[in-house]
Amino acid sequence: MGDIGERKPKVVIVGAGMAGLAAAHRLQSCSGDILDLVVVEAGDRIGGRIFTSEFSGSRIEMGATWIHGIDGSPVYDMAKKAGALIPDDHGGFPFPFERMDGLRSEPLTVAEGGRVVDASMISRISALFSHLKDLIASGEAGDDSPSVGAFLRRGFQSYLASREIGADWTEAAAFAMYEYGERTYTAVDDLESLDLAAEKEYKEFPGEHITLPGGYSRIPNFLSSRLPAGAIRFGRNVSLIEWRPAGSAGIDPVRIHFEDGGMEYADHAIVTVSLGVLKAGLNVTVDGAPGLAFSPPLPEKKREAIRRLGFGLVNKLFMELKGGGENDRSPFPSLRMAFDPARHVASIPRWIRRTESIFPIHSGSRVLLAWFVGGEAAEIEKMDDDEIIRGIHATLDGFSPPPRAAAAADAAFGKIARIRRSGWGRDPRFLGSYSYVAVGSSGDDQDELAKPLPEGGISPAPLQILFAGEATHRTRYATTHGAFLSGVREADRLIQHYGLRSCGF
Ligand SMILES: Cc1cc2nc3c(=O)[nH]c(=O)nc-3n(C[C@H](O)[C@H](O)[C@H](O)COP(=O)(O)OP(=O)(O)OC[C@H]3O[C@@H](n4cnc5c(N)ncnc54)[C@H](O)[C@@H]3O)c2cc1C
């Protein structure tokens, strides 16, 4: 057990995202003022990959959007406490927010060129895709395919072989459309890179999936409001953490070096930066490069885990439809796009050809949303607004129904006035969106990443560096609740180390 001597042990939490704030809140409520607690954040806001904003009269989420299952979710619990389930007043109406009408229902699936796809074919493909996903989740997918992508493709080929009539391109395009949706959930550029075995370990909380009327950012705001004034320090970009492996001489505490040349001592550092920042840190060779480095370098097993695990890129593109007043309802449908691999409409840009849909953020909204993943998500970070708007217009033209429905099409497939997009890939504080278990990696790598340092042997200064953050949670990675639980896990490690009473939130 750790000794609380005359000097308060100092804990520095690196990062004020969900994991860092959960750890800080837990330590604060359980240890009172026994520990000296500081959160250092590179940016100028809390929340990290949780970032609520506004666009065209609506509340939007640039990052985390859903609570994935509310039954038993600690994030749902926090959302209730934070008042995030209550909408803000907006001139006597609730402030509009993403999916305030729940999950999208009855999307319109259109094939490239403008033909509405036969509903019975879509329900067949949808049932096939759900069945294949159930097999993956239950572990019945077998060992023949290493990746989710390979398994899904085999399933689709068997389906085609079992049918007496040949498939037309729209059937393959519809299957691909579901695959593109799956890329968004998992953040992988190519489902062939997503490990099949790890998918069955992944757990969701049961119950409804919801978005938050008051905005996701209410949750980090609530957690930080429980910390003493000044506990969070902004603009503190950690570039290097010095620590002492077991067996080395001296009992100096950890030294945390900042990009601006400053330095701070700590007995314990809880590192919550993204896997992208850790990956970049493995390659840091020059001052000022993004990424967090360690001296001595992290043990080889941990470095290997960081290298092997996947960190994907997902970006959201919000588009405001031209015309109409703020309160007018738009007839734009939830449009799902079945792209023709032969590039039927040449003007549709390549960077949207693996996006599943363009849809209003809630029924009747004049704000549309499309999700981009992997290479295309990186591409939309680099383009200027006009180029993106031109590409969206070409896409909408390519999916608008034939001339006989031109009047209706004009109203429904409107033009875009302006856009707003996230840029998680180029932001040096994130360098991506969320983690996944890549082929060649496994849940063991997530456990390895979560191990504190120094490991093994008796150390004069135990638990110098602890690791939290979504990527360190073996079964609930890539989510806000995974991040939250990882922060609590590392706070509890210190609480136990100092023999403090365990406590709740
Ligand atoms: C587009 C998008 C959509 C998503 N959708 C959902 C969803 O619907 N539901 C869901 O549950 N999850 C979703 N997620 C995932 C979820 O947002 C994350 O898993 C979670 O917020 C991660 O929290 P974290 O504390 O682990 O990391 P972060 O939020 O990344 O926090 C780490 C903090 O560390 C700071 N930092 C980085 N480097 C340094 C440094 N060198 N020095 C000091 N500070 C540093 C960062 O600025 C950041 O504030 C989404 C994410 C994205 C990007």
Task: Describe it.
By secondary structure, the chain is an alpha/beta fold. Among the domains are: about 180 residues, FAD/NAD(P)-binding domain (3-Layer(bba) Sandwich); about 80 residues, no CATH class. Helix content is about 30%, strand content about 20%. It contains 14 helices and 22 strands. Strands 8-7-17-18-19-16-20 form a seven-stranded mixed sheet, with helices on both faces. A hairpin with a 2-residue loop joins β3 and β4. α2 crosses α7, α3 packs across α4 and α3 packs across α5. About 45% of the residues are buried. The model has no long low-confidence stretch (mean pLDDT about 90). The structure holds flavin-adenine dinucleotide. The site of flavin-adenine dinucleotide has 41 residues, from α1, β16 and α14. The site of flavin-adenine dinucleotide (FAD) has 41 residues, from α1, β16 and α14.
Salient structural properties:
Putative polyamine oxidase 5, globular, five-stranded parallel beta sheet, 14 helices, binds flavin-adenine dinucleotide, oxidoreductase, Amino_oxidase, cytoplasm, FAD/NAD(P)-binding domain, alpha/beta, seven-stranded mixed beta sheet, 505 residues
Question: Layout of helices and strands, plus pairs?
Answer:
Blueprint: E1 10-14, H1 18-31, E2 36-40, E3 52-55, E4 58-61, H2 74-82, E5 89-90, E6 93-94, E7 108-111, E8 115-116, H3 119-138, H4 148-162, H5 169-186, H6 196-199, H7 218-225, E9 232-233, E10 238-242, E11 254-258, E12 263-266, E13 268-271, H8 275-282, E14 293-295, H9 300-308, E15 310-312, E16 314-321, E17 335-338, E18 357-360, E19 367-373, H10 374-382, H11 385-399, H12 406-412, E20 416-421, E21 434-436, H13 443-450, E22 465-467, H14 480-497
Parallel strand pairs: 1-2, 1-13, 2-9, 7-17, 10-14, 13-22
Antiparallel strand pairs: 3-4, 5-6, 7-8, 10-11, 11-12, 15-21, 16-19, 16-20, 17-18, 18-19
Helix pairs in contact: 1-7, 1-14, 2-7, 3-4, 3-5, 9-13
Bound molecules: flavin-adenine dinucleotide.
